[in-house]
Amino acid sequence: MATTTSRSLITPLNSPIQYPNCRNPFSTAKPITRSHSIHIHARGSGSNDAIELQKLMQNSPYEFSSRDTLPSLPRPLTSARLSNLAAEGSRLRVAYQGVRGAYSESAAEKAYPNCEAVPCEQFDTAFQAVEKWLVDRAVLPIENSLGGSIHRNYDLLLRHRLHIVGEVKLSIRHCLLASPGVKIENLKRVLSHPQALAQCENTLTKFGLVREAVDDTAGAAKHVALHGFYDVGAVASFNAAKIYGLDVLAQDIQDDADNVTRFLMLAREPIIPGTDKPFKTSIVFSLEEGPGFLFKALAVFAMRNINLTKIESRPLPKQALQTSDDNAMCFPKYFPYLFYVDFEASMADQRAQNALGHLKEFATFMRVLGSYPADIGLP
């Protein structure tokens, strides 16, 4: 069943914004040398959204196409106004994906207490809002201890030129919600984000409910509330139940009590890394295909006693597939991959600098996505 979630309650943008000159000090890609207008073009639903690595190295990394269109957003703050935010005690505007009651909203408020949380329909929209100076930060999920990685956001990290400036971990406690008066035995279907459905698979199977994926958990709760369904429930937060007036039929329905989602804090500019607290650094790189290349890449960290906390591989579908010379049928032999790696060290640490310098000797592409304080507190 196709469902819809509410659009952000945001006023229109009245004038185009010129993005200021900036250079990513951690990137090996060619720096920007002139100002660019940011052009966002909608493409048809049948278009291929894959990333070409070569396009990421061009002078205009902000000109791209996306099938997710940017809804109307407020007039952006000026650079002068942004520089005075801290002095004036102004609230940061922080974008998150979803509607009110989403777990991402709670993560944004945990990452930036007293912020103005700005809902966005899609992950792409949150990235674009930061790039266009419409908000100050974005807080987006990247992995869950039960459901695994959010691959869409890994791909968007490479497509967009934002920097990871922090991370925040949030304990996720799912509830089964329904319209007032509805009992569990009345339900036939349940709506939620695919990650939430995966995290509650055993419980939902026990209840005998058919699972249907929608854009976000709170959006599912809002949809059920708006339509007053008698046989359809939602998996969402307790806070979403209060916001949308739904009954909580069951609490803590996730398959494991230790259900934690890690969120990334994204900004236009990187932070200056330090060594006064535990830091984490995130990078992405590609390698030539051949025996031992990945081993050599990971060894640059092991030989310097740097702990890796995450490695994720993502294919590049539009890259030309390599084929074996002796294969007359020309069947693809290798898919080209990008490797995302998180490691426990600051870019201010000489060990990290030496490791990345070593990696650059044989990596075909490398980019530092951010060096930022690690979240070592309780979720």
From TrEMBL:
Keyword NADP (UniProt): no
Pathway of action: Amino-acid biosynthesis; L-phenylalanine biosynthesis; L-phenylalanine from L-arogenate: step 1/1
Catalytic activity: L-arogenate + H(+) = L-phenylalanine + CO2 + H2O
Subcellular location per the Swiss-Prot or TrEMBL entry: Plastid, Chloroplast stroma
Domain Prephenate dehydratase: 93-268
EC number(s) reported in the record: 4.2.1.91
PROSITE patterns recorded: ACT, PREPHENATE_DEHYDR_1, PREPHENATE_DEHYDR_2, PREPHENATE_DEHYDR_3
GO MF terms held by the record: arogenate dehydratase activity; prephenate dehydratase activity
Biological process annotations from GO: L-phenylalanine biosynthetic process
ACT domain ranges (all copies): 282-373
Lyase among keywords: yes
GO cellular component terms, semicolon-separated: chloroplast stroma
Principal location class: plastid
TM ranges: none
Keyword set, alphabetical order: Amino-acid biosynthesis, Aromatic amino acid biosynthesis, Chloroplast, Lyase, Phenylalanine biosynthesis, Plastid, Transit peptide
Broad class of enzyme this protein falls into: lyase
Entry coiled-coil feature ranges: none
Domain of life assignment: Eukaryota
Reported function: Converts the prephenate produced from the shikimate-chorismate pathway into phenylalanine.
Name the UniProt record assigns to this protein: Arogenate dehydratase
Organism: Salvia splendens (Scarlet sage)
